[in-house]
Design goal:
alpha+beta; 123 residues; Aminopeptidase; six-stranded mixed sheet; globular; 6 strands
């Protein structure tokens, strides 16, 4: 069963932070399946936005979607409604509908979360 948890100690990710020029005070959530880490996201909440620096998900788009939504949900619980995707390749975030073509900003986290309700109700 998939679980996504906040990582308290991010020291194991410092090499990744350096490689991708991510601030050392960034946060990490990890996705687990049967106790094994299968993906993660590195992000930082700053001022009125959440900055998503990297998401590792193998080739599983559903996993990527779940990890990103977990980060967006955490931000929304703090009253944050904007997200900036700063990963090197933004195409997957466009494909999943988080950002529009030619943009790296999600202007309304609320609209993405409301989209889940619409999708659920349409099935």
């Amino acid at each position: 069963m998939l679980e996504i948890h906040q990582k308290a100690d991010v020291e194991n990710y410092f090499d990744h932070f350096k490689k991708f020029n991510i601030p050392n005070d960034a946060n990490v959530v990890e996705a687990f399946d049967n106790g094994n880490v299968i993906g993660f996201a590195i992000y930082k909440i700053e001022n009125d936005a959440v900055f998503i620096y990297d998401v590792e998900y193998g080739n599983d788009l559903y996993l990527c979607d779940g990890i990103v939504r977990a980060v967006l949900f955490k931000a929304s619980m703090l009253g944050i409604n904007k997200a900036k995707f700063e990963a090197n390749d933004l195409s997957v975030f466009r494909k999943l509908g988080f950002i529009e073509k030619e943009s790296d900003w999600l202007i309304s986290i609320e609209s993405i979360m409301d989209g889940c309700k619409k999708c659920k109700n349409s099935c």
